Amino acid sequence: MKQIYLVRHCQATGQESDAPLTPSGKRQAEQLAEFFRDRPIDRILSSPFLRAVDTVTPLAGQRGLSIEQDERLVERVLSAQPMTDWYERLRATFDDLTLQYEGGESSRTAMDRVNLLLAEVLESEHRHILLVSHGCLLALLMKSIDDCIGFAEWEALSNPDVYQLTVADSSRQLHRIWK
């Protein structure tokens, strides 16, 4: 059996790859480390975006674990062009997983990308793995596990947020464990 923790990063100053955590986000990162205090963690993988790495730095330091950065955990790009109606367009990509805007990534492509990583994690010897990423990508990963997850669940994600994926044989159970 494997426990995989899906973690959305703490509150950040923006969406850029180098956007740092806010002062509140830094406190949240400390709270996240405390939240995991009694849970075994063998391995930490993170999006290379600064806000994701900084989210898990206190926990990694507490455990003496390295943070493995993996590009497959970066946020899904909706479009290369600014969109004033991005919210409605994002909603549409949860309904039509193949919908792709100029310079962007379809939901299906993003799901395939992160599921390649998940497959590798499931094949590894580690049993308690923490994946740190971004809201949309995590919502799409969860949708690939449970098709009932969609745009509303993305909207409901907090910064940070934690879901636990338990995998035993071919069974996958997903539930929110963040307070």
Task: Characterise the protein shown here.
The chain is α/β, with parallel strands linked by helices. It has one domain: Rossmann fold (3-Layer(aba) Sandwich). It has 6 helices and 6 strands; from the N terminus they run βαβαβααβααββ. It has a 6-stranded mixed β-sheet, sandwiched between helices. Helix 4 crosses helix 5. The longest helix is centred in the middle third of the chain and has 17 residues. The chain is globular, with a radius of gyration of 16 Å. The chain starts with a strand and ends with a strand. The model has no long low-confidence stretch (mean pLDDT 97).
Please, how many domains? 1
Q: Strands of the largest sheet, in order across it?
A: 3-2-4-1-5-6
CATH architecture term: 3-Layer(aba) Sandwich
Give helix % range: 25-40%
CATH class value: Alpha Beta
Question: And the CATH topology?
Answer: Rossmann fold
Low-pLDDT stretches: none
> What is the radius of gyration computed over CA atoms, rounded to a whole number of angstroms?
16 Å
Average pLDDT confidence is 97
- SSE order in H/E notation? EHEHEHHEHHEE
Judged by helices, strands and strand pairing, the structural class is alpha/beta
CATH superfamily: Phosphoglycerate mutase-like
Name the assembly state: single chain
First-last Cα distance? 24 Å
Largest sheet: 6 strands, mixed
Q: Please, how many helices? A: 6
Write down how many β-strands occur, each being a DSSP E stretch of 2 or more residues: 6
Roughly what fraction of the amino acids lie in strands?
15-25%
Overall 3D shape = globular
